[in-house]
Every structure is written in C-alpha cells, then in structure tokens.
Amino acid sequence: MRNRQIEAGTRQAVAGSLRAGKGAAAPVQTVVEPVAPGIFFDGGTGYGAVLNAGTADTTRTRPAAPGGYIEIYCTGLGPVRATGEGIEATTLTPQVWIGGVPATVSYSGLAPGFEGLYQVNARVPDGLSGERTAWVSVGGVRSNEVKIAVR
C-alpha cells in the first residue's frame, strides 16, 4: 500500500504512476474527495487508535470513563484553518458516535506536530460501559467503525 499526500485544495483527479519492482510504471488516476474519514486501528483486535485524553493509554489497555474525554486519531477530515494559537482546526466539525450514542466534540484538527494526522477530542457519553463501537462522520460521510473500551 502506498500513501501520498496531496496538496491542500486539490479538487480534481490526480495522475500518477505505480511501479511494481523493476517493472514498467503503470499510469493511474486518483479521485480526490473533499472528505474521506477513516479511524486508524489495530487490524488484529479492531481497536481504534483512541487514547484517554492527555495520556498515551489506549482505551483497550485503560478503558475510558463515561464523562471522560478521548482522543481519536484519524485521517480524511478535510480542510483546516489556522486558529491563531498555532492550532489547525478542521473547517467542518465532525460528529462522533460511541455505542450508537452521539458524543460531544471539543476539538477537531491536525494533531500537533503531525502533517495529515487528525485528532478528534470527544466526551464519552454517560451510561456506556464495556466494549463499544465508535465512528466519525463529517460532511455526511461516515468512517469505519472501531472498537473502544468504556469502564
């Protein structure tokens, strides 16, 4: 799999080529969508790249507390704008769902110090516990579902 960062504001198909080993390059075209949300996850467990806010603890190793905040690491949330505080926030605010319950989003933007890595901070709804699914939706496009643990 190859990743490619496209210049901000690109709105049309991008031409490129793929080379397999020493073989000839095959031309490819890629459609650039305004948003294409995806939460990073562990393919072996299905648990998302979701941390307890302000820690390095995943919800798998330390379940999130109802009413507490989590950091969801993802991609494809679209354009960002500088806030004047050195932070680049998304121009569209995503919705977060945990166990089918909407969660309040307190921040959405680029993760500090990273290009192309988005961070969404959300409050875990009260009344949830156990293993739950979570997803992000932005601009009417829903991400993949990932597992998180809530105590």
Provide the descriptors you would attach to this structure in a database record.
151 residues; mainly beta; Immunoglobulin-like; 9-stranded antiparallel β-sheet
User: Fraction of residues in helices?
Assistant: under 10%
Structural class: mainly beta
Second CATH tier, the architecture: Sandwich
CATH-defined topology:
Immunoglobulin-like
**Rg calc:** 17 Å
Q: What is the rounded distance between the termini?
A: 36 Å
Q: Using DSSP, what is the number of strands? A: 13
Shape: globular
Molecular structure report:
By secondary structure, the protein is an all-beta fold. It has a single domain, classed as Immunoglobulin-like (Sandwich). Helix content is 0%, strand content 44%. The protein has strands at residues 14-19, 25-30, 38-39, 50-52, 69-75, 80-82, 88-90, 95-98, 101-110, 118-123, 130-138, 141-142, 146-150. Strands 3, 4, 5, 8, 9, 10, 11, 12 and 13 form a nine-stranded antiparallel sheet that branches.
Task: Give a brief description.
This protein is an all-beta fold.
SSE layout and pairings?
Layout: E1 14-19, E2 25-30, E3 38-39, E4 50-52, E5 69-75, E6 80-82, E7 88-90, E8 95-98, E9 101-110, E10 118-123, E11 130-138, E12 141-142, E13 146-150
Antiparallel strand pairs: 1-2, 3-5, 4-5, 5-10, 6-7, 8-9, 8-11, 9-10, 11-12, 11-13
